[in-house]
Fold:
Amino acid sequence: MGRLGLMHDVRIADLTIAVAGPSGSQLLADLGAEVIKIELPDIGDITRDAAPKLGNDSFYHLAVNRNKKSVALDLRTTTGREAFHDLVRVSDVVFDNFRPGVLEGLGADYASIRTVNSSAISCSITGYGPTGPYRDYPSFDDMAEGLSGVYSLCGEPGRAPVRLPIPVADLAAGLYASAGILAALLDREKTGKGRRIEVNMLDSVMYLLSLNFQPYFITGQVPQPAGSKHPIAPMVGIFRTRNGHIVLGPSWPRIARVIGKEWMIDDPRFNTVEKRFENKMELEALIEEGLQQADTEDWLHLMRLEDISAGPVNTLDAAVLDPQVLHNRTIARMRHAVGDDARTIECPVKMGGAVEQEHLPPPALGQHSYDVLKELLGYSDEKIAELKGEEKRVGDQEPRTRRRL
Structure:
């Protein structure tokens, strides 16, 4: 498995940093687009230094920047901005995730891009949106998750909210941005016109919460954290077994038979759908009591014989060895500079008939600068030297600051 050669004729000038933008541009790179990651010289993406590392690559960089090229350009310089505009002229998409107002100062806003390439698509991810009272506030994944209401639903009832281990706001924004880019590219095939796309992390998380907000809109009752069980459906969620935990899906009345509590089926507390909802906690306590009489593996065997939806609660080391994960080839490998193959999570999009290529490891900072400037943009060695010289002068005059969202 590997890259799908579906977007080989699409070039993306990628100004994104951190997770939200890079996760979206990596998906497009996995689908075959040429993604040229533009980074500040000597500093690069703000996540490059995070530990743990494989060689010089942080885990962040490895996770969301494969199949890309890296060009070091300082858009604060005249020559750097000129080179960026030259790249925009031969690109289809400009992708960023800076705070509103940053692009204007770099000559990378949509108005500037449109004067250089009227058919270019510009896509920006922001924390809260390009306008409004929070426009200029710094935002990272946790802020969007807290503000959206996600954290209020996480944890055990009556206890403090629990942080999610997945950067849902970042990843959702990246996915919706990539979907917007694909739609804009399709539209451009018909109209020949570029387009401005705006995606923000707050809206992205709240879109994911549609199934949680809808009951509230109907009833006016504010959903509360439900812990390890489904907040509405009885018998759905995580249950203790003798040696661990098991995840159950809808399974009534078969679950009662499997755990040896057939009497529950006709019990007046549980013999209708309405009563099972009404007595949800009592029903789940009885099921968990039964499940604690045997090990997870034994229950899974019995439940699969009865066609009950159930699964283990894997740790990550167990997940990568799961038979279905191995069958799906979900863990991919890519060659890495340290000499060993680097493991990575495969793109979930599978498509029949698509030409597949090996994944390329994330690029070193500026790894493709010369090739892009020389071969793609046609710069002379003298012009490249001039550009690098101006970047060095600016870098020597200013502190090594990191750009922020």
